[in-house]
Design goal:
This protein has 221 residues and is α+β, with helices and mostly antiparallel strands. It is built from 4 helices and 14 strands. Strands 3, 4, 5, 6, 7, 8, 9, 10, 11 and 12 form a 10-stranded mixed β-sheet that branches.
Length: 221
C-alpha cells in the first residue's frame, strides 16, 4: 500500500478523521489531507513518528510503493508482570438512564455510580448509560449498561446513544441518509424507524461496549 492507503486504513480501523487527529496529536488536518490526496508523497520524520505512536505501530517504509506496518505489543507495567494477558479494567461513570423504546425525557442522574469496562482509547472521553426499555431486544435489554465514546464518529450499522434538542434521549441503530437526515431504527421489529433531522440532534455517540444485565449467568428480564 502507499501512504494514502495506509492512513485511510488506520483512520478506518480507529475511527479517526483529519480534524480529530489534529485535535489529539497536533498534526494539522491540512497536512494529513495532503497525504491522503497524494500531494505529500511521504510525511516528514516527525509526522511518521507521531503516526506510529498514535496507533502503536511500526511502519516499514523501505519500499515507498509497498508500505506495511506491524502492531506493537502493549508494554505491561511492572506491577502487572506476574500475570499473562491481563486485561485493563476501567471505571466509567454512569451518567443517566437512556430509553430504548419510545422517546422519553431523562431526569435521573447516577453521578455516584460507576461501571467497569475493558474498553480504552487514549484521550477519548467515555461514559456509561443504563438501558431502559425493550426496543433494542435482543441486542440490548432493560437494565443493560452501555459505554459510549464521545470521540468516535458514528458509522452505518452502529448502535448509538442520541440526545435531541427537545430533551429526548434513546438508543437506536444508526444510518446516515444524506447531508440533512439520519435514520434511527430498532432491533425489536415491534418498533418502527425514525428519520431525524441532523439539526435536531444535540449529541450522538457510538456505543463501544455492553455489560449485560445478568443474574446467575442468565439474562434478567
Amino acid at each position: 500500500m502507499d501512504w494514502p492507503e495506509l492512513i485511510k486504513e488506520l483512520f478506518m480501523e480507529y475511527r479517526y478523521n483529519t480534524y480529530k487527529f489534529e485535535k489529539d496529536f497536533g498534526v494539522s488536518n491540512v497536512a494529513i489531507g495532503k497525504i491522503l490526496n497524494g500531494i505529500t508523497k511521504k510525511p516528514n520524520t516527525q509526522t511518521i513518528k507521531i503516526i506510529e505512536n498514535a496507533f502503536n505501530i511500526k511502519i516499514d517504509d523501505s519500499d515507498p510503493n509497498n508500505l506495511s506496518y506491524i502492531k506493537l505489543p502493549v508494554e505491561k507495567k511492572k506491577e502487572e508482570a506476574d500475570f499473562d494477558d491481563k486485561i485493563q479494567i476501567i471505571e466509567y461513570p454512569i451518567l443517566s438512564e437512556v430509553f430504548a423504546g419510545n422517546p422519553d425525557r431523562i431526569d435521573v442522574e447516577y453521578v455516584s455510580q460507576h461501571e467497569s469496562f475493558t474498553y480504552f482509547r487514549r484521550n477519548h472521553r467515555c461514559f456509561a448509560l443504563k438501558v431502559n426499555g425493550n426496543s433494542m431486544e435482543t441486542t440490548l435489554r432493560n437494565g443493560d449498561i452501555v459505554l459510549v465514546d464521545m470521540d468516535l464518529q458514528p458509522m452505518d450499522g452502529d448502535l448509538v446513544a442520541v440526545k435531541l434538542k427537545n430533551g429526548n434521549q434513546y438508543i437506536k441503530r444508526y444510518k446516515d441518509l444524506n447531508f440533512a437526515f439520519i435514520q434511527l431504527s430498532s432491533d425489536n421489529p415491534d418498533y418502527g424507524v425514525r428519520i431525524i433531522d441532523k439539526n435536531d440532534i444535540v449529541a450522538i455517540y457510538p456505543i463501544v461496549s455492553i455489560n449485560l444485565n445478568l443474574r446467575n449467568g442468565e439474562r434478567k428480564y
